[in-house]
Amino acid sequence: MRIVAVCGAGVGTSAILKVNAERALDRLGLRADVSASDLAGISDAAADAQVIITSTELAAAVRQAIGRSFAEVVEVVNYFDVEEIGAKLEASLG
Fold first, then answer.
1. Which of 48, 64, 78, 87 sits 20 to 30 Å CA-CA off 56?
2. Mean pLDDT, rounded, for 58-62
3. Contact 42, 64 (CB under 8 A)
4. Tell me, which fold does domain 2-88 have in CATH?
5. In terms of Cα–Cα distance, which of 90, 56, 48 is closest to 73?
6. How many Å apart are CA 39 and CA 71, to the nearest integer?
7. H/E/C letters for each residue in 49-84?
8. Are 39 and 7 in contact (CB under 8 A)?
9. Is the pLDDT of residue 12 over 90?
């Protein structure tokens, strides 16, 4: 399974989302390859992803950028809330 964390620049927020998604997956007993990407590179990064996690503010832009990708876009409100991220990933993957 592949998950991509996305933010505008691909540095700060996506790195936080990546680490917290890995923590959430660990708590759920799930394994996935989690990577970080910027918005400009998301179409390539999402080519083989099942899930893309991003902020609510960027979700529409991400959906537009990935076009017909089969990846589900999961919107996260609080990047630091591992429980929120875990619940949203569990709902998406379950």
1. 48
2. 93
3. no
4. Rossmann fold (3.40.50)
5. 56
6. 15
7. CCEEEEECCCHHHHHHHHCCCCCEEEEECCCCCHHH
8. yes
9. no
